[in-house]
Amino acid sequence: MADRRRINGPVGQTNPPIYDTPQEKRIAKRPGDNAVRKIFLKTGVTPSASGSAYLEIDDPFAIRPSGTNLKLTCTVHGPRALPRSAPFSPHIILSTHVKYAPFATRQRRGYLRDSSERDLGVHLETALRGAIIADRWPKSGVDIIVTIIEGDQNRDSPDYDRDEGWDMMNVLSGCITVASAAIADAGIDCVDTVAGGVAALAAQDEKSQPSIVLDPDVASYHKIFAACCVAYLPTRDEVTNVWFKGQLPGADAMLYNKMVERSLVACRNANRVLIQSLSETINPGQNVS
Amino acid sequence: MATSNSLTLSSATFAKLSPHPFLLANLQPSDPSTPSSRTNGRQPRQARPYSVNNSSLSHAHGSAVVRSGDTTVICGVRGETLLTSQIPNYRAPQADNIAIGDELRDYDLLVPNVELATGCAPNFLPGVPPTTLAQTLSTRLFSLLHSSKFLTAEDLRIYHDGAGTQGEGDTEEEGFGETTREVKAYWVLYIDVLFVSFDGNPFDVAWAAIIAALRDTKLPHAYWDVDRELVLCKRPTEKEPRPLSMRGLPVACTAAVFTARERQKKGSGQYWILVDPDRLEESLCNETVTMVVDNTEGETKVLTISKSGGTVVGPALMREFANVAATRWNEFRSALQ
Questions:
Q1: pLDDT at B7
Q2: DSSP structural state of residue A173
Q3: Other beta carbons within 10 Å of B292
Q4: How far apart are the C-alpha atoms of B319 and A68, rounded to whole Å?
Q5: Residue B269 CB: number of other CB atoms within 10 A?
Q6: Measuring CA to CA, which of A86, A185, B24, B109 is 20 to 30 A from B173?
């Protein structure tokens, strides 16, 4: 039975537009393997929530001025008392929700959360749980809701069908950073600000040797072999979550370590943006650089 | 107000503890020299200004972000194709274009949905089915989209020119002559409205976002491919996508009626019309009026009036409110440009 609480549209099947000519391949010149895309972060976008933040990652190859790759909003509600029916909990109970907007990706998303969204939610929860000082709020809960307004998929990417979900890595690292900013905005005590970062083993084109790149813009690579998303606490030098996906060639045993290390660099980068945006919230008008 | 020093409340605490007297005290100040205003500092007839930002999404065919005070709404319009063979009880439109019915409504070509469960306010959390408010909003927007006749079915038809594809030899289409232009498919517009931040007056802002997004919508040029039996689209680089044609510019304007409770002798029976209520005011008012007006042709045309919850607003006030809605229309039009 169809969802009766929403407007479902026609009974027949609708198809997203199919184009007659394939998209010409973009010539994407990365500034370098170590380059990280620009991050825009702002807190306090939803005044009625306890804390909120908005994150945008810039697309360096955007044709249109508004063509950014990743847009996320996060709202934090709480800490608040758990319902009476809930069992006693000595620490704060985190509940994370990650949801794609229907217009966030190439394929229209439904309104019910699918498995990939639940997966992102679980990863986000483990990443944040390590940072929050949970014992300070017994018997209370906090809701962290991330809405993906635009997923990290490029509309002009040549391989329309081959979607291996690499963009989820970038989405997760964005989710971690934005949620951390929103938690700080809500005034929930943390040991440090968590930041997410991604490194990937990718090949630029068919002939080139795969190399480790930071913050991979999926559309501009020929193939991605493996990717690693890390949540990191820079001042304590601790990692709260690692998500590794893909296959590594067996010859180099250190490759895995190298990838994690490279993603830590991306994390530190994101953390710098995070700190700056938070200090701008505290002293508005004063340009902290 | 508390006069003793031991119990002095800040205005924020007062607002939280007893919101109704707080708003009343603001609207009806004890000191006549202070002007009466709402808790948010606005005059009763003063609405929050709109700000509109178009085409910020890359995956949607049209999109808009509309902000009015602390209410922020994103609307994305996405076109998908629906084959006429997939429509049950499909009847081809007549050649003389006399409507045999409303195609937009009969074939469900417009699909507006409102998503409130984004944590946009503390009472809208995800993980639960859409709230009553989200459902009523979706339904009201759906019926307004159809009743205002804002879009035309012609824009959403995908034709196939039978005569143009005649190859060698005699196909069956030969017999039809030159009038073999038939509708093979329709565009279905998925209109998704997402609340980023919620501070009252959801209907007006959601409708404004839908209008702005539809004005921004450009559908790619689509044609029927006979060999593959598919609808194919031309790349925007090859053929410029065309915008939708629109009829007028309907703008919604909502006001809430705030009444002094009868218990309080001082101002019983008194009421205030609060245009563009925020979340606090909405929670205190029972009676709301929404009017959708269109001023494009110089005179105010009323498309919808809906009023619920009380008995204060009568015909005279309604007429007065139409003028308020007309000024709101002007505000929105200048925000669009």
A1: 66
A2: H
A3: 23
A4: 46
A5: 8
A6: B109
pLDDT digit string (tens) for B24-40? 888 888 777 777 788 88
Of A98, A108, A275, the residue nearest A173 (C-alpha): A98
Taking the CA of residue B31 and the nearest CA in chain A, the distance in Å comes to 31
Using the predicted structure, report yes or no on whether residue B167 has a pLDDT greater than 50: no
pLDDT at B2 over 50: no
Please report, as a single letter, which amino acid is at residue A26.
R
> In degrees to the nearest 10, what's the CA dihedral of B13, B19, B21, B22?
50
Vertex A281 angle, CA A279 and A282, to 5°: 65
Chain B positions in Cβ-Cβ contact with residue A12 (cut-off 8 Å): 82-83, 86-88
Q: Which DSSP category does A207 fall into?
A: S
Give residues with Cβ within 8 angstroms of A240, minimum separation 6.
A126, A127, A128, A129, A130, A131, A194, A231, A232, A233
3-state class (DSSP) for residue B319: helix
Q: Is the Cβ pair A47, B197 closer than 8 Å? A: yes
**Does the pLDDT value for residue B6 go beyond 70?**
no
Nearest residue to A170 (alpha-carbon basis) of A97, A78, A270 = A270
If contacts are CB pairs under 8 Å, which of residues 145-164 in chain A contact chain B? 145, 147, 149-150, 153-155
Q: What are phi and psi for residue B323, nearest 5 degrees?
A: -70, -40
DSSP state of B263: T
Coarse DSSP helix, strand, coil percentages of chain B, rounded to the nearest 5 percent: 30, 30, 45
Contact in structure between B109 and A10 (CB atoms under 8 Å): yes
A93 interface with B at CB cutoff 8 Å = no
What is the ipTM score, two decimals? 0.89
Domains of chain A: 31-278 (3.30.230.70)
Please answer yes or no on whether B113 and A7 come within 8 Å at the CB atom: yes
State pLDDT tens for residues A129-170.
999 999 999 999 999 999 999 887 765 554 544 556 788 899
Minimal-distance CA residue of chain A relative to B231: A18
Q: Collect all residues with Cβ–Cβ distance below 8 Å to B269 and sequence separation of at least 6.
A: B259, B260, B262
Judged by DSSP in three states, B186 sits in strand
Q: B267-276: per-residue pLDDT in tens? A: 567 889 999 9
Integer Cα distance of A139 and B105 in angstroms: 51
Q: Is the peptide bond before A249 cis (omega within 30 degrees of 0)?
A: no
Question: In chain A, whose CA is at the least distance from the CA of B121?
Answer: A48
- What is residue B179's predicted lDDT score, i.e. its pLDDT? 57
B97 φ/ψ sector (left φ>0, alpha ψ -120 to 50, else beta): left
pLDDT of residue B96: 57
Q: Is A45–B196 a contact, with Cβ atoms under 8 angstroms apart?
A: yes
pLDDT at B124 over 50: yes
| B104 within 8 A of B247, measured Cβ to Cβ | no
B165 has a pLDDT exceeding 50: no
Q: Is B190 on the interface with A (CB under 8 A)?
A: yes
CA-CA distance, A154 to B77, in Å (whole number)? 18
CATH class belonging to B50-243: alpha beta
- pLDDT of A113: 86
Q: Which of residues 26-65 of B touch A (CB under 8 A)?
A: 55-60, 63
CA A129 to chain centre: 16
H or E element, residue A54: strand A51-57
Token pair belonging to B104: 């937009």
More confident site: B120 or A20: B120
